[in-house]
Amino acid sequence: MGGRFSTKGYATGPGRAGRFKQVYRDDVQLYPDTPHDAGAAPAGVMVCAGCHAVYERKHWHFNEADFARLHQAPETLTIERCPGCQRIADRDFRGELTLVGVPALDPLDPRHQRLVATEVQARETNPIARLAEINGSPGRWQVSTTTAALAVRMGTELQKAFGGQLTIDKPPRTDLARVQWTARESHVR
Ligand SMILES: [Zn+2]
Question: What CATH number matches the domain at 92-182, 3.30.1380, 3.40.50, 3.30.60, 3.30.70?
Answer without folding.
Answer: 3.30.70
